[in-house]
Write a structure and sequence with these properties.
Elements: H1 3-16, H2 29-33, H3 43-77, H4 87-90, H5 95-120, H6 124-141, H7 149-169, H8 175-200, H9 204-207, H10 216-240, H11 258-274, H12 288-308
Helix pairs in contact: 3-5, 3-6, 3-7, 5-6, 6-7, 7-8, 8-10, 10-11, 11-12
Length: about 300
């Protein structure tokens, strides 16, 4: 492969933003919290395979959304100190190439959703998959320029991922799981707005129309409120929600994971206020303490699932 072709391929990979695919890990939440880890074989393996396909489907659909968003914002991104180096504003990828790339991601992503639906006999998953690019276009064209609605719309995208993961394998959608996801993603979105506002200063309007409508003080209050609400919602979930995960037991053993959530929230807030992580939330996985906290939380939830089921 020639050097020019290698650079072009690298630019397309960058346009797809694979580092942000980690957000689609939320599709596994339904599988884990519905206790499907303990399902008899081969059901558990088939469902896990279906969730993996659903994850890949949403990765492609996410790349479609990122490409569409970058196409719309290429002029604004050219004035951003960091985003001006992205493939479209830097000119490494032309607009027509990005459009073709987006269409291919959309087609392959929806094709995988059809495969998941066929394997698990869950036709509604196709609707969930279709709703994601509809949400992405709606956000990019309209909602991102409306104050407060913009961050709520971002949070809605995360909630949609969780719901889609449940729909993919036909398990009930816990309202507690949706609420915790909504609040956590809202917290992260607000931290990102604060970072953009402080980074761009007087140039904020040229990059994102909604930014001048916020102020650092207002965002600080919103961030504190959503952080507290997230911790409280998760704590109430561990105490009061019926735990199919924990062997159909009403014993709130899941409360043992509350310290992980508290530390994780505070650690992310520390990083958001002292580093550039808030601007690119996917970089939080590069922070060893936070990464270990997430891994310990996952392992503890899985361990409780098996221990309580005996």
């Amino acid at each position: 492969m020639s050097e020019q072709a290698t650079k072009k391929l690298s630019a397309f990979v960058e346009l797809a933003r694979p580092l942000q695919w980690s957000k689609n890990g939320l599709l596994f939440a339904g599988y884990i919290f519905a206790g499907r880890l303990k399902a008899p074989m081969p059901s558990a393996a088939i469902e896990l395979f279906a969730v993996v396909l659903a994850f890949l489907s949403f990765c492609l659909l996410s790349s479609f959304a990122y490409a569409i968003n970058d196409l719309r914002d290429r002029e604004r991104d050219s004035h951003h100190p960091l985003k001006r180096h992205r493939p479209l504003p830097s000119g490494r990828i032309k607009s027509h190439e990005a459009i073709l790339f987006a269409i291919l991601c959309l087609l392959f992503g929806l094709s995988l959703s059809v495969a998941v639906s066929a394997i698990m006999h869950t036709p509604t998953f196709i609707l969930a998959a279709v709703s994601y690019p509809v949400w992405a276009i709606s956000y990019s064209v309209l909602m991102k320029d409306i104050v407060i609605v913009d961050v709520l719309a971002v949070a809605a995208g995360f909630v949609l991922r969780v719901a889609a993961g449940c729909i993919a394998i036909g398990v009930s959608i816990s309202p507690w799981l949706l609420l915790c996801t909504l609040l956590l993603s809202l917290f992260i979105a607000l931290c990102k707005r604060r970072h953009e506002l402080l980074l761009l200063g007087d140039r904020a309007h040229g990059f994102r129309n909604v930014l001048p409508k916020y102020s650092p003080g207002m965002l600080d209050q919103m961030i504190a409120a959503t952080a507290a609400a997230t911790i409280m919602a998760y704590s109430l979930y561990t105490f009061t929600a019926p735990h199919i995960l924990l062997g159909n037991s009403n014993s709130p053993w899941l409360m043992l994971t509350i310290p992980y959530v508290i530390y994780g929230m505070f650690r992310y807030m520390y990083l958001a206020y002292s580093t550039d992580v808030a601007g690119e939330p996917e970089k939080m996985l590069q922070d060893v303490p936070l990464l270990l906290t997430i891994l310990l939380w996952i392992l503890t939830v899985i361990a409780l699932s098996f221990i309580s089921g005996r």
